[in-house]
Amino acid sequence: MGHIPGGDPAVLRHASALAVATGVPLIVAHIDTSRVIDALDPDGAAPGTAVSEALRRGRRDLAVVQAEADLALTDSPARWTVLQRVGDPAMALHDLAERTQASMIVIGTRRDEIGAAVREFLNGSVALRLARHQSRPVVIVPTGVVHPWRSRTLT
């Protein structure tokens, strides 16, 4: 499953339940997009400060994902581990699924924020890209769902 720092813990719990139900281990994957450096110094080398900052951010994000998984999965009987990959999220999750012979990929829907909407517009939906180019099921867990019938008083 793919998880981002600050992601909905419900996605972790759903993925864990699926892993337990199917008897497979759960891989919680953080895809570090910050280490994809596309700005080069004039001599063609990757900028040192950008690379150093990207490495720090990647380590920090991985620690957050690990802590969030620890918290969300503390009572889960699933066998699970956290891994980090680098690059485009859809391609990295596809590659990891291929390498580990995953039975499915579980991801959450995008966050409801302007930056996520712009990235989705420019790069396309990770869920849609995965669903179109996979030979395995892609389970998409809705995140941040507000059910209007729960907020109204029924008369």
How many whole angstroms does the radius of gyration measure?
17 Å
Distance N to C terminus:
41 Å
User: Based on helices, strands and strand pairing, what is the structural class?
Assistant: alpha/beta
Number of strands: 4
- Name the helix and strand elements from N-terminus to C-terminus, one letter apiece: HEHEHEHHEH
Ranges where pLDDT stays below 50 over 5 or more residues in a row are none
The whole-number mean of residue pLDDT values reads 82
Which strand order does the major sheet show?
Answer: 1-2
Query: Largest sheet, described in full?
Result: 2 strands, parallel
Helix content: 40-55%
- From the spread of the alpha carbons, the general shape counts as globular
Strand content: 5-15%
SS field, number of helical segments: 6
How would you describe this protein?
- The chain has 155 residues and is an alpha/beta fold.
- It is built from 6 helices and 4 strands, in the order H-E-H-E-H-E-H-H-E-H.
- The protein has helices at residues 9-22, 48-72, 89-100, 114-123, 126-132, 148-151, and strands at residues 26-32, 80-86, 105-108, 138-141.
- The strands form 2 sheets. The chain has a two-stranded parallel ribbon. The protein has a two-stranded parallel ribbon with strand order 3-4.
